[in-house]
Amino acid sequence: MKVGILLSGGGTNAQALIDACASGDVPADIAVVISNRRKAGGLDRARAAGIPAVHIGHRQFDTREQFDQALTDCLREHSVDWVACAGFMRLLTPVFLDAWTGRVLNIHPALLPAFPGVDGQAQAHAYGVRIAGCTVHFVDAGTDTGAIIAQGAVPVLPTDDRDALQERILAVEHRLYPMVLKMAVEGRLRQDGRHVQVDLRDREALLLM
Ligand code: GAR
């Protein structure tokens, strides 16, 4: 199985996926990493791992649909089976989603459906919740509204600022996302409306804490 990663930033989640594939924990190859930002650290991580790193700037297209078609073309050139969004800060249109139905995953740094959109960690911190976390879900045309596959929960400590909370959430993101990608590429996820049925193996769980 070949996986394409979409990202916009530093790429620590992409690194976790790259490492899990390289070690054989996830039986897949990362075939390409694409970023809409030329300077995204995630592109450097891909290059360092010998993975094709492609910049496709969204501003060079007149419409979202044209950008999404360019993403699809690039993923197809690399014979991708699954798409993993890892800090990819663009909404995907039906042009993209119809080409990859049921094969696009995303990780979001909040316990959805709470705090969708930008900076879920800051939203959770500002709201004053006692439990925060992250969610891996299928991507649909909404903002972080797709069917939930797995979640990771962390405490929010009274001494936390937004950055401390982000760091605690990121640590669980790096465990959760490779685990879900493994389930995906092994054909063990089945979406049934809002529910995702998972054929669980040893020591896997759909809620990490
Ligand atoms: C991660 O926390 C990820 O959950 C979040 O961006 C960060 C990327 O970090 N994604 C979103 O907010 C998507 N709505 P990384 O570049 O170090 O993986």
Shape: globular
Order of strands across the main sheet: 3-2-1-4-5-6-7-10
Largest sheet, in brief, is: 8 strands, mixed
Query: What's the total helix number?
Result: 6
What does this structure look like?
- This protein has 209 residues and is an alpha/beta fold.
- The chain folds into two domains: 1-101, Rossmann fold, CATH 3.40.50.170; 108-209, 3-Layer(aba) Sandwich (Rossmann fold), CATH 3.40.50.
- It is 33% helix and 24% strand.
- The strands form two sheets. Strands 3-2-1-4-5-6-7-10 form an eight-stranded mixed β-sheet, with helices on both faces. The protein has a two-stranded antiparallel sheet with strand order 8-9.
- The longest helix has 24 residues, at 162-185.
- The model has no long low-confidence stretch (mean pLDDT 97).
- Bound molecules: glycinamide ribonucleotide.
- Glycinamide ribonucleotide is lined by residues 7, 9-13, 42, 86-87, 107-109, 120, 134, 144, 170, 173.
